[in-house]
Amino acid sequence: MSPHSVASGSVRSAAELNERIRALWLRAGGSLSAEERAEYELLVVAWAAAIRGEVVAAA
Q1: Distance between CA 1 and CA 16 in Å, rounded?
Q2: Gap between the Cα atoms of 29 and 41, Å rounded
Q3: What is the maximum span of the chain, computed from C-alpha positions, in angstroms?
Q4: pLDDT in the model for residue 56
Q5: pLDDT value at position 12?
Q6: How far is residue 2 CA from its own chain's centroid?
Q7: Which residues of 21-38 are buried (b: 16+ CB within 10 A; e: fewer)?
Q8: How many CB atoms lie under 10 A from the CB of residue 47?
Q9: pLDDT tens-digit map of 24-55
Q10: What is d(CA 55, CA 14) in angstroms, rounded to the nearest whole number?
């Protein structure tokens, strides 16, 4: 997965993004390359936005 595919505008649930973050760490063996770090950062930003959206929707 390229880092840009996370920022493509598609809406993903926080749970799906969390699973992708976990899978990234498992594939990387706990040590991220520069490309994996960029992907991780985008996933975390998307996850945080999804969490905020879910909290607002629940309120």
Answers
A1: 15
A2: 17
A3: 39
A4: 76
A5: 85
A6: 12
A7: beebeeeeeeebeeebee
A8: 20
A9: 999 999 899 999 999 999 999 999 999 998 87
A10: 11
Residue 58, Cβ neighbours under 10 Å: how many?
Answer: 6
Would you tell me how many other CB atoms lie within 10 Å of the CB of residue 12? 16
Residues 6+ apart with CB under 8 A from 58: none
d(CA 17, CA 22): 9
Q: Full-prediction pTM beyond 0.70?
A: yes
Q: Using CA atoms, how far apart are residues 15 and 46, in angstroms rounded to an integer?
A: 11
User: Which residue blocks in 1-59 are alpha helix, DSSP H?
Assistant: 14-28, 34-58
